[in-house]
């Protein structure tokens, strides 16, 4: 495993970490026994950073991580998120009372006295223009409820605004072969300010695994079926906002570029690691085999320049016209 600094926290975190959305819900059927086996395997392989949220399975994912802490002795970091429980999900709801309540609930789920890293969970854009919200987070740090805080965002604009607040240690943003805009300006700014980048949805909801085709189906409880047009939450969260058919075409164009000894998923993860501004990727894993395949990307050789250019060309042809300016 390789490790990189996370913001100004003093932590060094695994470059391939663990995203715990899939073991919570809205990714189809999941079994807690398999989920725990996946979490244990991640630790075995050197993963020391786990990203979750209070809404993943209504706390299910957080509770599984609390169980992992009880079953293992080695230290690891848990990042969770708050804000998506608001109904309606509007900027006015991000009050001291609501944020404090969300934090207290996550503390109970995680069975801990302090959350390692709390992230605002893709709040409305207006929240990033409300200094009082970040003041509440500063107060929660001072009270010992949080060790650090950051943000999870949909748009580059939101990330650029968020890092103006001195307490923000990390930005979680979609960055993958189908969503390359963050590397244009944001990463330069986060490096200047010492802010970590957590690359979420690194495999574009599984598209970049190379295992899907036009006949692939998804269960009623799987967002890859019901959220393609943004019916439940931001469209960009599902297949990076890309039309499924276009995404499949792009994947086929990438397939010949996969280096010998790599899976397509590993190439996609290794591509993200090529950017030094990225602290870590947080792919999901429902079972130990998926975790093992993901984690192996941490120690693979760099992608050749010719491969990087060919991947950039595929992005420009298939994805850029559809997603680049939207997020």
Describe this structure in words.
It is a single chain. Helices cover 36% and strands 14% of the residues. It has eleven helices and ten strands. The strands form two sheets. It has an eight-stranded parallel sheet, with helices on one face. The chain has a two-stranded antiparallel sheet with strand order 1-2. α3 links the parallel β5 and β6. α1 packs across α2, α1 packs parallel to α10 and α8 packs antiparallel against α11. The longest helix is centred in the C-terminal third of the chain and has 19 residues.
Put simply, the count of helices is 11
Structural class estimated from helices and strands? alpha/beta
Largest sheet strand order:
3-4-5-6-7-8-9-10
- Mean pLDDT equals 94
Shape: globular
Q: Cα distance, first to last residue? A: 31 Å
Question: Radius of gyration from the CA trace?
Answer: 18 Å
What's the story with the biggest beta sheet? 8 strands, parallel
Spans of at least 5 consecutive residues whose pLDDT stays below 50 are none
Helix fraction by DSSP (H/I, runs of at least 4): 25-40%
Task: Tell me the series of helices and strands, N- to C-terminal.
Answer: EEEHEHEHEHEHEHEHHHEHH
Number of strand elements: 10
- Please indicate the percent range of residues in DSSP E strands (runs of 2 or more): 5-15%
């Amino acid at each position: 495993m390789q490790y990189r600094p996370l913001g100004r926290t003093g932590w060094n975190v695994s470059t391939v970490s663990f995203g715990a959305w899939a073991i919570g819900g809205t990714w189809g059927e999941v079994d807690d026994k398999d989920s725990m086996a996946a979490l244990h395997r991640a630790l075995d392989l050197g993963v020391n950073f786990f990203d979750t949220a209070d809404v993943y399975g209504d706390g299910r994912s957080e509770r599984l991580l609390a169980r992992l802490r009880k079953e293992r002795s080695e230290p690891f970091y848990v990042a969770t998120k708050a804000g998506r429980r608001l109904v309606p999900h509007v900027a006015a709801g991000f009050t001291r009372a609501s944020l404090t309540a969300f934090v207290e609930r996550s503390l109970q789920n995680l069975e801990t006295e302090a959350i390692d890293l709390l992230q605002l969970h893709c709040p409305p854009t207006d929240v990033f223009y409300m200094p009082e919200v970040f003041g509440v987070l500063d107060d929660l740090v001072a009270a010992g409820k949080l060790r650090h805080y950051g943000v999870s965002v949909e748009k580059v604009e939101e990330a650029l605004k968020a890092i103006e607040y001195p307490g923000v240690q990390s930005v979680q943003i979609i960055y993958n072969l189908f969503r390359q805009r963050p590397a244009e300006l944001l990463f330069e700014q986060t490096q200047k300010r010492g802010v970590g980048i957590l690359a979420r949805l690194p495999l574009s909801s599984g598209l970049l695994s190379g295992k899907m085709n036009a006949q692939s189906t998804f269960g009623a409880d799987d967002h890859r079926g019901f959220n393609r047009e943004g019916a439940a939450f931001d469209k960009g969260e599902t297949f990076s906002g890309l039309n499924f058919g276009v995404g499949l075409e792009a994947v086929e164009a990438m397939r010949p570029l996969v280096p010998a000894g790599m899976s397509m998923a590993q190439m996609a993860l290794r591509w993200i690691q090529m950017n030094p501004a990225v602290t870590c990727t947080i792919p999901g894993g429902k079972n130990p085999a998926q975790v093992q395949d993901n984690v192996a990307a941490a120690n693979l050789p760099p992608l050749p320049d010719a491969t990087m250019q060919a991947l950039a060309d595929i992005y420009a042809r298939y994805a850029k016209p559809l997603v680049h300016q939207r997020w």
